[in-house]
Design goal:
The protein is built from seven helices and nine strands, in the order H-H-H-E-E-H-E-H-E-H-E-E-H-E-E-E. Helix content is about 30%, strand content about 25%. The termini are far apart. Strands 5-4-3-6-7-8-9 form a seven-stranded mixed sheet. Strands 1-2 form a two-stranded antiparallel ribbon. With about 240 residues, the chain is an alpha/beta fold. Bound molecules: S-adenosyl-L-homocysteine (SAH).
Amino acid sequence: MRRIARTLAAAAALLLAGGAGASPEDDRGRMVRDIEQLTAAGAAGSLRRLEPRVLDAMRRTPRHLFVPEAVRDQAYSDSALPIGHGATISQPFIVAVMTQVVRVQPDDVVLEVGTGTGYQAAVLSPLARQVYTVEIVEPLAASAAERLKRLGYGNVTVRAGDGYAGWPEHAPFDAILVTAGATHVPEPLVRQLKPGGRMVIPVGRRGDQTLTLIEKDARGRVSRRALFKVLFVPLQERSRR
Ligand code: SAH
């Protein structure tokens, strides 16, 4: 009797770990198919298809090496996960969509605000020339920098600091991704966007955020488009001016 219970417990543990003997590559293949289905079904509003290179980047990035040990078995479920300090690693679907909507090109210099684990920066890495990422919680910035270096993401630079102010030394940027929810679009980030540049940012009150695409045209005119509702941890707005 006890042996049967033990066998059942072991089988359940395997199932929870994502299926019998599945490799991280298999798990990521499944995750990417889920993301494609969600997008096709309209979960990202009018965006119904993600480019193959974005899907490839998602397939190549080992999310299980970015999440804390305690939630590693859920690394390839399509959900946000806690990473400590009140922060979360975003849902893979959202990471893919944000990467897509800013249309990152191979020569682009990209800024991310809200490094967290460094996962979004790692997804951007093979798609861009250089990725700069700012994180306000120092221990998160330090561990993301160490992790990205260890995993060989040589074109990602992490800084601890307040990303509300952007990163003027490396501006202007072709693309900016803000991965925390802001009450308004920070003016310094709009200034640091290149003509022709794109920024994606969750905007709104807590519990009512809209993923928003900001574009600056060749003549410097700024336009703004609401995409769909999202849920992000708040952007700290200390250096608000
Ligand atoms: N992109 C991350 C997840 C981001 S969670 C990943 O892939 O893992 C949002 C992050 O934004 C948190 O780590 C939070 O500490 C950070 N943050 C909040 N306000 C910030 C600010 N003003 N400047 C920089 N980072 C900020």
